[in-house]
Amino acid sequence: MIEYAADERFGYASTHKALSAAAVLAATTPEEYAAEVPIEPGSLVEYSPITQEHVGGTMTLAEIADAAVRYSDNAAGNVLLDRLGGPEGFEQWLRGIGDETTLPDRRETELNDVAPGDDRDTSTPRALATSLRAVAVDDALDEDDRETLVELLVGNTTGDDLIRAGLPDGWTVGDKTGSAAYGTRNDIAVAWPAEGEPPLVLAVLSQRGEPDADHDDELIAEAARLVVGALG
């Protein structure tokens, strides 16, 4: 295990969508996951590129999970949270898989406003890595749900410049990114080496001191490079 500030709190931002999707998969039957969900105009929030194309219509819950995880669609993320009973229900599910650290409090997009010292909507690298391993590698989900989640993570469209950029060619990577105020830039990932070795789970979280600070994608990529280099 390689760690730095592993128990320091950071705003988790949109990385929650990987775990929210896992929770929804765990809580629904295949029929429920395929059911249509209305997309109301009032449900749109900033950065909802997929759901905004379906306002007044419907999307299946599976399509909503795809939008949330692969495109980081915020309205879709809220549908997942609402399906769980809101942040409180999400927290209860996290506790059920052994995560006593992550603190859901708000919905999108308010959860992205986490000043240094604010514990709302925060987690730690250790907790997020452990929870991601539980659902994407271990047995917190049944096999079919785990395969569905991994497919979503591997198909992510928002992470090419982050952990993926720091890993060797030929590795298969499934990740979920996040960004927020105070220069917050995060990525949590499962990476399968090309040689068929056991998967590597990474959680790289970063934050700066000023509310309008720029985030740094290369910092995340370089952290991934350092981890792989240290592991040999």
Automatic annotation (TrEMBL):
Question: Which GO biological process entries does UniProt record here?
Answer: beta-lactam antibiotic catabolic process; response to antibiotic
Which reaction is the catalytic activity of this chain? a beta-lactam + H2O = a substituted beta-amino acid
Keyword Secreted in annotation: no
Give the domain of life: Bacteria
Q: Does the keyword Cytoplasm apply?
A: no
Which stretches of sequence are listed as region Disordered?
Answer: 105-124
What range(s) does the Beta-lactamase class A catalytic domain occupy? 2-205
Q: Which UniProt keyword terms apply here?
A: Antibiotic resistance, Hydrolase
Which EC number(s) does the record attach to this protein?
A: 3.5.2.6
InterPro entries in the record: Beta-lactam/transpept-like (IPR012338), Beta-lactam_cat (IPR045155), Beta-lactam_class-A (IPR000871), Beta-lactam_class-A_AS (IPR023650)
* Pfam families xref list: Beta-lactamase2
The GO terms this record gives for MF are: beta-lactamase activity
Q: Which family does it belong to?
A: Belongs to the class-A beta-lactamase family.
Which named protein is this? Beta-lactamase
Originating species: Arenivirga flava
